[in-house]
């Protein structure tokens, strides 16, 4: 049968993190989904480790992208997807076993084309929990004011038909390609919807690697610009996706 969800995961040197997410997906209670891993020519064992899940995830496909670009890799996965809804995850996130079951219920009940969910810290401590509270509350505030910049590409679910109408992610972006997609959706009259449940476990590896002050400053400045509808194409930000950068933070 045709899957309801197509889960698309762009990866680059994510041998240490991708298996965590694939394990979460293999344990899902809702089973009408496929998983598409799009590798950007990894230099580690990412692809080999992904292949070990073929028997646990019968509908697993591993694609190879000629370009190391998160937007390009997500678009390539979407082109191969058979699902009614596309679910975009990053390799370092995790979800509970009822994530897809709850999302299915929301999508059937609400008939929404574009949505995201609240976040929880993958490493829960007081500081991380406060950051997650601010992020979740800030998302609700943005949506209250009809501002579309309210979700990251690591946790976006979108109708495949609507995604194709938007022509996917803009591959020219190396940062805020997700916000650009949401802003284009809003111009077509679709504001992303946020569900408080289920939650997604958000990775704090970037904070640990580059420092909390540096990362928070980047995100806050970005959100202020987006709140005032600044064009993301003019953001001059380096935001590498290479998983090798975080190996010294391996837990």
Write the layout of secondary structure elements.
Layout: E1 5-11, H1 18-26, E2 33-39, H2 46-51, E3 60-64, H3 70-80, E4 85-89, E5 94-95, H4 99-110, E6 114-121, H5 126-144, E7 155-159, H6 160-165, H7 177-187, E8 193-202, H8 205-210, H9 212-227
Parallel strand pairs: 1-2, 1-4, 2-3, 6-8
Antiparallel strand pairs: 4-7, 5-8, 6-7
Describe the protein in words.
With 251 residues, the protein is of the alpha/beta class. It has one domain: Spore Coat Polysaccharide Biosynthesis Protein SpsA, Chain A. The chain is 38% helix and 20% strand. An 8-stranded mixed β-sheet has the order 3-2-1-4-7-6-8-5. It is globular, with a radius of gyration of 17 Å.
- Ends: how far apart? 39 Å
The third-level CATH topology is: Spore Coat Polysaccharide Biosynthesis Protein SpsA, Chain A
- Sheet having the most strands: 8 strands, mixed
Stretches with pLDDT under 50, minimum 5 residues: none
By CATH, the architecture is named Alpha-Beta Complex
Mean pLDDT: 90
Tell me the domain tally. 1
How many H/I helices? 9
- Strand composition percent: 15-25%
Supply the CATH superfamily name: Spore Coat Polysaccharide Biosynthesis Protein SpsA, Chain A
Helix content estimate: 25-40%
Rg, nearest Å: 17 Å
Q: Summed up, what is this model?
A:
The protein is of the alpha/beta class. The chain has a single domain (5-245), classed as Spore Coat Polysaccharide Biosynthesis Protein SpsA, Chain A. It has helices at 18-26, 46-51, 70-80, 99-110, 126-144, 160-165, 177-187, 205-210, 212-227, and strands at 5-11, 33-39, 60-64, 85-89, 94-95, 114-121, 155-159, 193-202.
């Amino acid at each position: 049968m045709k899957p309801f969800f197509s889960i698309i995961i762009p990866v680059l040197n994510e041998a240490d993190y991708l298996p965590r997410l694939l394990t979460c997906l293999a344990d899902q209670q809702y089973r009408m989904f496929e998983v598409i891993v799009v590798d950007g020519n990894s230099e580690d064992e990412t692809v080999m480790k992904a292949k070990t899940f073929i028997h646990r995830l019968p509908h697993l496909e591993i694609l190879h992208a000629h370009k190391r670009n998160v937007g390009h890799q997500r678009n390539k996965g979407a082109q191969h997807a058979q699902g009614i809804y596309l679910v975009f995850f990053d390799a370092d996130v995790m979800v509970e076993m009822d994530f897809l079951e709850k999302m299915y219920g929301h999508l059937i009940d609400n008939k929404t084309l574009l949505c995201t969910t609240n976040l929880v810290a993958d490493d829960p401590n007081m500081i991380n929990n406060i950051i997650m509270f601010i992020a979740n509350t800030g998302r609700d505030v943005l949506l209250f004011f009809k501002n579309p910049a309210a979700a990251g590409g690591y946790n976006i679910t979108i109708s495949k038909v609507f995604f194709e109408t938007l022509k996917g992610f803009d591959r020219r972006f190396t940062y805020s390609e997700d916000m650009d997609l949401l802003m284009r959706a809003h111009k077509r009259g679709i504001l992303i919807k946020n569900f408080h449940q289920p939650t997604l476990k958000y990775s704090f590896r970037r904070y640990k690697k580059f420092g909390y002050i540096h990362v928070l400053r980047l995100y806050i400045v970005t959100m202020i610009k987006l709140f005032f509808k600044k064009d993301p194409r003019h953001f001059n930000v380096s935001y590498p996706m290479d998983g090798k950068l975080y190996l010294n933070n391996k837990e």
